[in-house]
Amino acid sequence: MAINTEYVAKSISILEKSYELLMSSQKPSIEYEIYRNSTIKCFEVTLEQIGKLLRKKIKPYFSSAKDVDRLNYKDVFRYALKHGILTNDTVERWFKYRDNRNDTAHDYGESFAEETVVLLKDFIPDAKKILEIF
Fold first, then answer.
1. Which of 39, 67, 73, 117 has the fewest CB atoms within 10 Å, measured from its CB?
2. How far apart are CA 15 and CA 53, in angstroms?
3. Is 3 helix (H, G, I), strand (E, B) or coil?
4. Which residue segments constitute the domains of the chain, with CATH numbers given?
């Protein structure tokens, strides 16, 4: 069964463009704030969607789909590592992205937003790379 990656690919494209606009805007300005907010939201959506795609990718390794559905986000990545779908380095980076997302979801301060912006330089190529496994 082929896994449809169109939505995630589009999310990554939007994220990449938002990030470009963010990096070309002056800090502090209203444009910077708008682009940063957009970029962070795209980051969150992309992160969640990649987790869902990976969940579909590991389903054949389980006796039931319900077993996969019960896994938390990080466990999905651990099973992808266990079955050779991802490397240890890749999984560690995705754990870092997930931890950041959890932090920004609970603290909307500027420092957390800026920490996310710093991660995007690596996140965008990692997101593109992970699509290659589908």
1. 67
2. 18
3. coil
4. 6-131 (1.20.120.330)
Q: Which residues of 77-102 are buried (b: 16+ CB within 10 A; e: fewer)?
A: bbbbbeeebbeeebbebbeebbebbe
Identify which of 69, 58, 50, 60 has the alpha carbon closest to the alpha carbon of residue 130: 50
Instruction: Using alpha carbons, select from 99, 100, 122, 131 the residue that is nearest to residue 8.
Output: 131
For the chain, the farthest-separated pair of C-alpha atoms sits apart, in whole angstroms, at 53
pLDDT, one tens digit per residue, over 27-45 is 889 999 999 999 999 999 9
Tokens 């704030």 belong to which residue?
33
Per-residue pLDDT tens digits for 48-107: 999 999 999 999 999 998 999 999 999 999 999 999 999 999 999 999 999 988 765 555
- Rounded to whole angstroms, how far apart are CA atoms 84 and 87? 7
